[in-house]
Structure formats: structure tokens, C-alpha cells
Amino acid sequence: MTILDEINNNKRREVAAAKEKISLEDLKKSPFFGRKTNSLKAALRTPGASGIIAEFKTKSPSKGMINENAEVTEVTSGYVAAGVSGLSVLTDRNYFGGSFENLAKARFTNPKTPILRKDFMLDPYQVYEAKAHGADLILLIAASLSKDEMLKLTELAKELELEVLVEVHTEEEIEKLNPMVDLVGVNNRNLKTFEVDVETSIRLGKLLPEDMIRISESGLSSIDNIQYLRANGYEGFLMGENFMKTENPAQACADFISKLKA
């Protein structure tokens, strides 16, 4: 069993328990449910956009605890002030130290910034959760879903006016894409071995539809990385650990974007 299999099995148990506690009707009563969502697609294609999607996460399965003292309001508001194009907030607690509380706090603090709910999405109930807690878009991991499952979750997301970012890391997973997908993220980290190779983005990027917005994920740590990927058609760059491992993630992000624009 891979770490991804383990996470997905645990997630199914979590979702089943959540359904027992909070009904869909209760989720729909959230004050966030009626809000107009922000578009990450539009943000990434705004002239002069940094393209950086900065992530708030305190731990990961591969690295363990990254930053247990980080506070989501302080960090995400600092990211936005630094000039990010979007935010990513982990909501998986067991493996990534995330929470819905963090997502909601990031939403309250940054009302006009696109926010991705970063989690392992397997069930339609989770799409309603994302909307109810203030997300603007969801992540669908191709390795975790069949083509039909991805289509159904994408259709529901669009009904709820959420954008969809699909994550792929092999050629075969690209076949699962459907025309309603808004953005494709190429994960440079192999989800089975957790090894990282930025060349994965270059290789798979050439196989994606020409007009598709490309986002590179994992292992990005240098200005050279971003410039190299941008020259190869990438418009978004998901970065978390590079900032979160520092004492001041927001300042690290600001310094990085300043150098990038220079």
C-alpha cells in the first residue's frame, strides 16, 4: 500500500464521519455559500502577475513537522501583501496539519484572493465542504480518481461556481482530464515514492492541451526554477515548503517575489 492509498482510505473514513455530523443542508447554510468566488485563472493571467500560489501547511508526510508555530491569518495576509496570485490552504489534519478553521480564517482575512482547498477530494460531499468554508477552487488528484469520478466532481464544482485544478504526475493521468477542468497542475513529486523532479513538469506540459493553464507543483525553490518553467509555458507555481520552513514565511515569500520581478 502506498502513502497515497493510506491517505485516501483514511479520508474516506473522515468523510463518512463528517456526513454523520453535518448534513448537506447545514453546509448550504454557511454564510460563505452565497459569496461570489474569485477566479485563479483570471488572477494568473492578470498582466504582471507573479504566478506564485503560496501554500499554508504546517507538516507533510515526507518531511514531518515543517512549522508548528505558523499562524494562518498572519502568514496568508503576508503572502497576499507580497503579491501572490493565489493561496493554497491545507484542510487535511492527520497528514498535513490542516483544518477548515484555517481555510475559513484565510478567507476572512483575504476576501479578494483566490483560495484553493488543498485536500484529497474523493466524494461530492467534500465539494460542498469546500464551498461552505470559503474556497474558490478545489484540487482533484488524478491518481486518486477514475475518469468518471473526476467528471462528476468537476460537474458539481462548476454547479457551485468553484474552479477545478486537476493534479497529474503521469502521462496516463492526463487522459482523465475533461473540458470543464480550469487548470492543470503537474506534481513534480512522485506520489508513490515522494521523489521530486522538476523535469516532470516539462515532460508532461508538452502533452497538455495548448490553451490549458499550467501550474507546476512541488520542489520549487529558486528563481531559476520559475523562469525555466515560465519559459516552458507555465503560468502558476505552487510553493509551500520553501516559505513555510522559514521563521517568517510571509517575508520569505516577499523576498522571493521581489527577486522574481527584478
UniProtKB/TrEMBL annotation:
InterPro entries: Aldolase_TIM, Indole-3-glycerol_P_synth, Indole-3-glycerol_P_synth_dom, RibuloseP-bd_barrel. Pathway: Amino-acid biosynthesis; L-tryptophan biosynthesis; L-tryptophan from chorismate: step 4/5. Residues 4-253 form the Indole-3-glycerol phosphate synthase domain. It comes from the Bacteria. It is an enzyme of class 4 (lyase). It catalyses: 1-(2-carboxyphenylamino)-1-deoxy-D-ribulose 5-phosphate + H(+) = (1S,2R)-1-C-(indol-3-yl)glycerol 3-phosphate + CO2 + H2O. SUPFAM superfamilies: Ribulose-phoshate binding barrel. Signal peptide: none annotated. GO terms for biological process: L-tryptophan biosynthetic process. Pfam families: IGPS. Keywords: Amino-acid biosynthesis, Aromatic amino acid biosynthesis, Decarboxylase, Lyase, Tryptophan biosynthesis. Its EC number is 4.1.1.48. The keyword Lyase applies. Transmembrane segments: none annotated. GO terms for molecular function: indole-3-glycerol-phosphate synthase activity; phosphoribosylanthranilate isomerase activity. NCBIfam families: PRK00278.2-4. This is indole-3-glycerol-phosphate synthase. It comes from Mangrovibacterium diazotrophicum.
